[in-house]
Amino acid sequence: MITVQEYLREHGCDEDLGRLISLIADQADPIRGAFIANQSYATTLNSSGEVQAELDAWADDHLIRVMKGSGLVSRIASEEQDEVVECPGSCSDYTVVMDPLDGSSLIAVNLAVGSIFGIYKGPILQKGRNLAAALYLLYGPMTTLTLSIGSGVATFALADDGRFLLMEDGIRMPEGSIYGSGGTRPEWTGKHTAFITSIEDGGGKVRYSGSFVADFHQILKYGGLYAYPASRGRPEGKLRLVFEAQPIGFLAMQAGGRISDGFTDILDILPTDVHQKIPIYVGSRGLIERLESMEE
Ligand code: AHM
Ligand code: MG
């Protein structure tokens, strides 16, 4: 059985980066353990004006405290924080971007949710293609860690003894026909409606839970499409470029898939604001290329 630490060493991961990934992996257990005690909604709004679940705030506080104290991170940008958190005295120049608890509207109904992380060397506002590592924790029937340090994608499962053990390495995203789209059909744009209809006409099977991490994970394994599109009332979509699209897109790309805003590869977009939103299409390469070639 290969642990995540052994995997990182075998793949020649930079030592500080490996320690940081290991530190993040170690937080799966405390976060999972906090679910029962943090079931309600907080009275606070996050930077996007969304009501925070108690667990959103708990996971955010916890992760920031642990990372700040580690000396391994120079700055942290979180979906739950208005401002970038500076970490003086760090021994490295790593930036962590994170969505501490993604899919939090599903906590109360006990569906799978996750935590998303991207790690950059240097400043925050970089193209997703520059990520040194991207990873997510998925709290489902198993707790899993899906990781890329730029040499493919691997998934690990959390064992009873607290170690993450390798389940699958070299994951390749197949072409597939599972699909899920956020938003509502009356609000979708013409191009999005036509694209989804073409998938349905081709025998596509809808599977959408409302948790980006969980919905993406099945696309990673089975192929297909996850979309949170622009809508008539919300041209920028719902999900965030830096915290959600870049790390998940990096993992998709590393598995042979693609991420797009409908026109261009999201990994080539330089963010101008930490909290900016973007329409997201992520999934099998063939499907995303078909979308990009469609007329408006
Ligand atoms: P969150 O980060 O505040 O939890 O919001 C992101 C979530 C994604 O996990 C999910 O894909 C999407 O919002 C679901 O939105 P909707 O309920 O509109 O379908
Ligand atoms: Mg999120």
TrEMBL record:
HAMAP family: FBPase_class1
Designated name of the protein: Fructose-1,6-bisphosphatase class 1
Similarity section: Belongs to the FBPase class 1 family.
Chain residues that bind Mg(2+) 2: 99, 102, 244
GO biological process: fructose 1,6-bisphosphate metabolic process; fructose 6-phosphate metabolic process; fructose metabolic process; gluconeogenesis; sucrose biosynthetic process
Signal peptide extent: none
Residue span(s) of domain Fructose-1-6-bisphosphatase class 1 C-terminal: 175-294
Subunit and interaction comment: Homotetramer.
Any one GO CC term of the record: cytoplasm
Pfam family, any one: FBPase_C
Binding site for substrate: 102-105, 208, 238
Cofactor(s) required for function per UniProt: Mg(2+)
Cofactor binding note from Swiss-Prot or TrEMBL: Binds 2 magnesium ions per subunit.
GO molecular function: fructose 1,6-bisphosphate 1-phosphatase activity; magnesium ion binding
Location relative to the cell: Cytoplasm
Reaction catalyzed: beta-D-fructose 1,6-bisphosphate + H2O = beta-D-fructose 6-phosphate + phosphate
Keyword Endoplasmic reticulum: no
Main location (coarse class): cytoplasm
Ranges for domain Fructose-1-6-bisphosphatase class I N-terminal: 40-168
